């Protein structure tokens, strides 16, 4: 069953067409890589899906439900969450406090003051930062700040995660570790779309790759097919290379 269906998505900023009639179908349990040269529209697609940008044309369905005009809060409540490119922890709160903040949008839980300590420990443990719950975000190494962002998204209890550049700024060992953690999410039933410029890390992780170029769909296939695709190579040669 399709979990996410993006149909004919177009997003214009004034005269600039950032995404042009783009469609994407994600099946339950898939890990799909969304790639493309700088400025090809990847983040704009995520922003449209999450309700951060109004859609110019097209529709977006999640679990069969039309979410095109929904607010971000409504979309998150329905089980779709995003890990942004930027980390934005609140430095006044500990790691645990930051995770707890993201459990508050759930109305039943917020009546009881958010998630319990056990639940927060559980979210942190899913991304291996449960021993850092008392630390302050500005004391953490970069990779743990990124893990905190993932833990915050997990705290909203998503069925599906959009991960925007999860490997950015990580070394090879950290990339391998994060890939293994993302694989574990899938084993526990999570569906994911991953945008990243680290092709090595991404290609090993994903089942399928979809390529955007100048806001247009360019290609879709297995990581091997995409690595060998001439059109994809040309698009990247015009940019930063595959
Ligand atoms: N809020 C905005 N206002 C105006 N133009 C925008 C806005 N957001 C994105 N764009 C433009 O839309 C196009 C697609 O940008 P987008 O950030 O989606 O690309 P991307 O593939 O995510 O790039 P990168 O890999 O560099 O993050 C670019 O030309 C960008 O300048």
Can you describe this structure in just a few lines?
This protein is of the alpha/beta class and 242 residues long. It has helices at 42-49, 72-77, 95-101, 107-111, 117-126, 142-154, 172-187, 199-205, 223-228, 230-237, and strands at 2-13, 16-27, 31-35, 57-62, 65-66, 80-83, 160-164, 191-195, 208-213, 216-221. This is ABC transporter.
Annotated CATH topology of the largest domain: Rossmann fold
What is the CATH-assigned architecture of the largest domain?
3-Layer(aba) Sandwich
The averaged pLDDT comes out at: 92
Q: How many E strands?
A: 10
Q: Could you tell me which ligands this complex binds, including any ions or cofactors?
A: adenosine-5'-triphosphate
Topology:
Blueprint: E1 2-13, E2 16-27, E3 31-35, H1 42-49, E4 57-62, E5 65-66, H2 72-77, E6 80-83, H3 95-101, H4 107-111, H5 117-126, H6 142-154, E7 160-164, H7 172-187, E8 191-195, H8 199-205, E9 208-213, E10 216-221, H9 223-228, H10 230-237
Parallel strand pairs: 3-8, 3-9, 6-7, 7-8
Antiparallel strand pairs: 1-2, 1-4, 4-5, 9-10
This protein binds adenosine-5'-triphosphate (ATP).
Protein name: ABC transporter
GO molecular function, one term: ATP binding
Pfam families: ABC_tran, BCA_ABC_TP_C
């Amino acid at each position: 069953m399709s979990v996410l269906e993006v149909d004919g998505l177009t997003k214009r900023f004034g005269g600039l067409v950032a995404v042009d009639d783009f469609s994407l179908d994600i099946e339950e349990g898939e890990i799909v890589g969304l790639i493309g040269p700088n400025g090809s529209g990847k983040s704009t697609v995520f922003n449209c899906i999450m309700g951060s940008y109004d859609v110019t044309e097209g529709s977006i369905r999640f679990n069969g439900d039309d979410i095109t005009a929904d607010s971000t809060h409504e979309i998150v409540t329905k089980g779709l969450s995003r890990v942004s490119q930027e980390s934005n922890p609140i430095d006044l709160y500990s790691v645990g406090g930051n995770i707890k903040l993201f459990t508050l949008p759930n109305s039943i839980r917020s009546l009881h003051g958010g998630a319990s300590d056990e639940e927060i420990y559980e979210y942190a443990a899913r991304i291996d930062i449960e021993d850092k719950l008392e630390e302050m975000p500005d004391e953490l190494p970069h990779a743990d700040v990124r893990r905190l962002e993932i833990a915050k998204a997990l705290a909203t209890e998503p069925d599906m995660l959009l991960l925007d550049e999860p490997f950015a700024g990580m070394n090879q060992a950290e990339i391998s570790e994060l890939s293994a953690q993302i694989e574990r999410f899938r084993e526990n039933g999570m569906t994911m779309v991953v945008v990243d410029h680290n092709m090595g890390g991404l290609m090993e992780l994903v089942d399928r790759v979809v390529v955007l170029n100048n806001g247009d769909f360019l290609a879709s296939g297995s990581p091997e097919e995409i690595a060998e695709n001439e059109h994809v190579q040309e698009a990247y040669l015009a940019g930063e290379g595959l």
